[in-house]
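quick one, 661 residues, struct below
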Amino acid sequence: MARRPFSSILIANRGEIVVRIAHTARELGLRTIGVYSDPDRDAAHVAACDSAVDIGGAAPADSYLVAQKILDAARASGAEAIHPGYGFLSENAAFADAVETAGLVWIGPPAAAIRAMGDKAAARRQAAEWGAPVVAGYDDEDQGEAALVAAAKRIGFPIMIKASAGGGGRGMRRVDKAKDFAAAARAAAAEALKAFGDSRLVLEKAVDRPRHIEIQVLADAHGNVVHLGERDCSIQRRHQKIIEEAPSPALDEKTRAAMGACAVMITEKVGYVGAGTVEFLLDAAGQFTFMEMNTRLQVEHPVTEMITGVDLVEQQIRIARGEVMDLTQDDIWFSGHAIEARLCAESPVDDYMPRTGEVLAWKTPTTRVDHALRTGATVSPHYDSMLAKVIVHAPSRQEATEALARALDDTRLLGVETNRAFLAKLARDEAFQKGEDVTTAFLAERYGDAASRGVAASDNLWAIAAWITACGGASRSAIPASWRDWSNAAPLPLRWKLEGAGETREGLARAEQCGATVERGESVVRIDGVIGEAGETFDARVGGRGLRVTHVLADGALWITEQGGGDHRFKDLRLAPPVRAISAAEAGAVSATMNGKIAAVLVAAGAAVKSGDALVTLEAMKMEHVMTAPANGRVKAITVAVGEQVSPGQVLVELEPEKVA
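---
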């Protein structure tokens, strides 16, 4: 494998990881080249590089996942090396080989190591042969349904089904009862085939309420291997991480040393070179078992950087140059505690469904935030829902959780629904702050119902929203500041009517200099303050209580954030058309909840369906979402086709409700 000096890097990825890699590369004096798809033409990661190459397409399969387009871009730009970031082609052994065949330096592990660890079944078998502890399971080549069912019965339930060729939660199912296994295995195999081109499955005995612990490793081409401690990645939804921290509050020094030694052993045995992560499950008794090895840089690498002071991207680049690693195990020490929260375009109250839209306002806190966002950017349905990572570091874990909550409070992203407020709620959760019972079941156990994941708008925030929409509409910014909110006549009451979170409120508002009076029925609230500019934070007092808010008005909607509270979207109903009767066909319509592509139509016109039956699979942001029947009935019409792009509210299936005798 070629390891030699180079002066330019093509970063074969998009978003925040490109910005992250470009920053370190530039500090090392390297020229950076980005690539971009059609939707990413004006993206921030393009501007972060010295130059960029158009690779066309929109969906990853037409752009970032096309190896030949990446190689052509490298050739056209004069790049000497390729860094794949994570996701996309980062763990594709064939691409690693192709990069080297093209005479370029691959900033990653050898293709042989990617192959050995990328196949979960083979990796399990190999790790067990080397002496690593593994959980009871099935990883044989026989993938027939009979063999899988027999293996599941032998292992015993509950069981985890995993895609042999991939990760990220795709192709993964937990099955608690034997009667549900066969159907779950078929669904997991189909999802794995679509995501990774490989339907093979691995079965493992499910470990109840484990912690997900991973060890960061570095290895050079000269036989030197070190580990940089662990990360605890137990806070997950859909088997995907949303909060990671280092070090883990669950490990003692003996267990930490044993896990580190096991990770180094596996790294050495597989002939690994570069940065990688060995992942384990830790059970309630403190026993750990090998899960997999990720042969790339991880999304959560910043927390390791924060507690060690080691720039992992710099180490990757130096190792790819063939340099001897200037770190020994004794050189690595840990300082304080770091936590990362993944800011995602999704709705926690709607089962974490992804969201799309335009970023109308974006402001970062005074801590490390890895991102590729800007005001005016479009959050597309074609890519992952993660938008940014908010990372904090403090002397202690308690201080770090408090710092994370404050940082999330100070983060502003309006125009797209996100999990920001939910992450802040998690950071303040008493059980999370104690750190004693944080397992992969944490969210399901403590936030299993939708209402627990939401942050309701306070009455005072409704009053602020009424003030802004009624008295400070879009035309207000055109008035000179010295003349705003001033009149020599008695202020006339202005009607307001808002809809938010399924609730509608209305009343009157009287604009006054430096404030307003908002009426709703018998309630009268005095507001003191001056409405700030769109996207800028301003202070106001409502009924004597101080609020700090940020807002944007766009297309008849008010996006508003309350400091320490949630992000809310209010719809101005004053100009809304009158409510009309809904036809029977509309009442029975199943509509898209987001932008996406139709991945599968699961029923036919005329079919009888029951409430909860799967109708259509919608693919958005690298995840598949099944749209189900809201009630018993019959399929009247299918209005979409596989491969079709759809938008929120578009009718997918028309249902004729079952007649009640």
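Residues 459-572 form a domain with the Glycoprotein, Type 4 Pilin fold (CATH 3.30.700).
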